[in-house]
Structures are given as C-alpha cells and as structure tokens.
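tool_call: predict_structure(chain=1)
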Amino acid sequence: MARIRVTWVKSTINRPERQARTIRALGLHKLNHTVEHDDTPQIRGMVAAVDHLVTWSVIED
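tool_result:
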C-alpha cells in the first residue's frame, strides 16, 4: 500500500480550533514535523482539510 508523508509548515494560530485538532490527529506536534501514514481516504480527507497548513507527498513502495 502506498504511504503519504505529511509535513506541518504553517502555524495554526488564528485558525479555527477544528484545524488545530486535525493537525494533532495527524500526529504532528510542532512546525516542520513530518509523519507518514497509509494512504487511505480518511487520511486524504484530513490532509485536504488542512492543505493550506501542510505539505504532503505520496510515497510508492
């Protein structure tokens, strides 16, 4: 299964609380932190909700 790499690049200050919770749910703890997840529709939806705060790429195996 493909994986998705997500990096938090923009602060959640002055953003809705829901976006901050989504960042935390993705496992990101501080700016420039990178995590990898399985490429599922749920993860894609979370990334789409905070697309303006993160960068992401798909990692093929």
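agent: The chain has one domain: 3-59. Proceeding to next step.
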